[in-house]
Amino acid sequence: MNEGPREVGTMGVWMWRAVPNNTNPNKDYIYSKFASKLKPIEVISIHQVSDEKNLLDLLKDGIEIEYLPEMGMYSAHVGKGHYSGFLCSSRDFEKNGDKFRLKSTLITLPKYEFGRNEFIKFDNNRSFFKKLSVGMPDALVPVKDTMELIKNIILGRNSWSVFKEAGKSRGEWKLVKNFLDELDVNSICAEIADTLSCSQVEAKKQLDKFITVAAQYIDGDSIEDSIIEAIIVTDERLMTKCKKILKNDWEEENKKEIAQKQKEIDLLNIELAKGKEQLDEICSDKEKYEGEIQNFRKELEAKEQLAEDVEKEVSKRIREAQGNAATFIAEMAFVNVPSRLESQMEDKNKINEITLDASENIGIFTQIKENIDEDWNMTLDSIEDELIEAGVMATFARPMAAYLYSAYLIGSDLLLTGPNSEAIAQAFSCAVTGKLAKKLQYKNAPDLEYYKNQIHKGTIVIIEEPFNAEWVSQIPNFVANTEAFCIGIHPFIEDLQIEPRSYFNYMLPVFTDSVVDRTPAKSYMCSLKTDNYVEYEYALDKKDNSKALSILHVPAIAKKRLELIVGNMHIMLGDSNTDYDVMFALLPYAYSTMQTQLLNEMIKDSNKKKITISNTMLKYLTEIYGEFDE
User: Fold this and answer.
1) Hey, which residues does 509 pair with through a beta bridge?
2) Are 374 and 533 in contact (CB under 8 A)?
3) Using CA atoms, how far apart are residues 31 and 1, in angstroms rounded to an integer?
4) Is 528 exposed, middle or buried (0-12, 13-18, 19+ CB in 10 A)?
5) What is the pLDDT of residues 248-287, one digit of tens each?
6) CA dihedral over 509, 514, 520, 525, signed as positive or negative
7) Rounded distance, CA 137 to CA 128, Å?
8) How far apart are CA 587 and CA 566, in angstroms?
9) pTM here?
10) Which positions ≥6 away from 418 have C-beta within 8 Å?
11) Backbone phi, then psi, for 434, in 5-degree steps?
């Protein structure tokens, strides 16, 4: 057998046939072929449990097992010679420490009931079903509680964007979201079954019985009510008396409300009378204005006719002038035509300028947030929400918000590169400063000094065309000598590789193409802060990724800024996950300076490993940039 697995402990299925041996009738020729598509189902007996509920809970918590069969029947011994199990493939599990547990994305599992005579146990204590197929399952058992799944679906659909379009505040959205998060979705039948020590079927019967009894009392169907109703209905005088008593009692009980409503009706009648008078005045004005419009139309028609007559006369004169050049030149001699010298002087006097505008002309709208931020943590929430509006994936919105906010607080200017850069910068400005950022736009002006006096501390300024050859040399001086937080924006990350490496001493690169998955919204919520707002106290002694930055030859200024930004990002997020160190800080710098090979070695080479990231993040970044392929 030259086909199939050869490792000790592995098993497979071969198809074979025997051919007679003409030279030796006592021995036949055996021809075999490995059947790679046939997967035997191995029976994995879980001895710790004795019913399917505990078995499912154990599979969700995780089991310690040396290997995962490609197809396995994970079963519990529920009776003499009787088993109950779940059919799972190896892809249904994920590794969690020393255990394998069911993936959180699984919805249901097929359940099978089978007997001892349906599988074979080998000498190595491994058991397999005699048949390659176990047929249709006896049931599909939900891995997650049905109500929990429904709750998650509802939470997924009720996003902040949906609430904002409905005119709701972010506070209302948070209230609904927190309520649904805390909603108890445990089945009432399960609770009744536990209390009464009975099955869920019996618990359902008892619940239905209780609902029927309660409905009778609620609907007024009790025997006593029926007798009283019959007496009243059959006696007309008693019916009239009861109605009168009820009417008097109701009027007495609601005397104040009736008087109040009558006052409201009287006021409405007064308003209605005023409205009618106003309507009559409007109708009178309408007739007046319609008459004026009619007069204007007549005047307009007369002027249009005059213009048409003038045009005809001008055309006639031009034809006459063309026929008599001398006459035409004589007439044109009296027309004032600007000289060529005057035109040249006007060109020289044109004023070149750089504009610092408030961005009202870029099609972005804002509205003031109803919930005012009380501390930096609430501001971080606002940044996260608005980044999602700007097209950032929800998975990366929180860590990116912490990275940008950390850079803003320590005053380290950034260069956002890639799609949605301007939208992300504007969303960040709305959440942090409560207004859109100012845009510094190049228009052939030679000097930026004028604008330094217009910018206050904490202002966010977006710099367009940061690599423009006419003013790139002025930007470092402008960035270094203003108290504003500057964000350069550029659409293409590849362009950074041809710019001066020392540029990143002034503006640190951040890539957006790995975090956005849709076009940005056109409306952002502006946050306001309370008078006693609690500021974030940032640390100035962080040394995160110091060795990795040294290997990437990062200059001292940029290195210190990156260490502080990443260190304070970890404090804000409350973790030490280095996935986002690579995504927002190390990878953009290594890519821009063409040092991705060094970063690759630091991540993968066991001898030079200076930073560790998850396999999920490594695979994701590889799919986008392709710089980590082995």
Assistant:
1) 415
2) yes
3) 9
4) middle
5) 888 888 888 888 888 889 889 998 988 888 888 888 888 8
6) negative
7) 17
8) 13
9) 0.50
10) 491, 492, 493, 511, 512, 513, 514, 516
11) 80, 15
